[in-house]
Request: fold
Amino acid sequence: MKKAEISVDSQSPVAVLSKTSSKRLLLGKTLLFSIRTAFIAAVLLVCFLAFGPALEVVPGGDKGNHFLAFLVLSLLLDLSFPESGPGLVKVAVLAAFGASIEFIQHYLPGRDMSSLDILADILGIIAYVLLWNHVGKLDCALRFRELLCKPRVARA
Reply:
């Protein structure tokens, strides 16, 4: 008895779906890796700027620097772990990072600890959360977040 050979035509819906799924998964993994790399680079840049000589990166002074830095860090951290929105854990981690920077600056020559800097950090985080609550619910933002999330395996 001969075994029946089953060949999948490259144009069949199953093959197209399989190719699309694998391309989407590869794109999602590549994009997620790139975003996580950007987050780590941003954290290192913030540390370099915080522990080096004082610079004015954003017009408006030091508080503008803090606000913008933590707005961007919030975005990158949120997209680095896209399974959930900007929850309490992500907010707490970034707030603790900002407070620890200020604590360390207290011991550095030429730098000082400032509660207003911590406030600017927190305001940058809050600004991201508010933006996410308005813009993050849009269809394009939801599809982007879905692309970054790992595919779920359906259970029978």
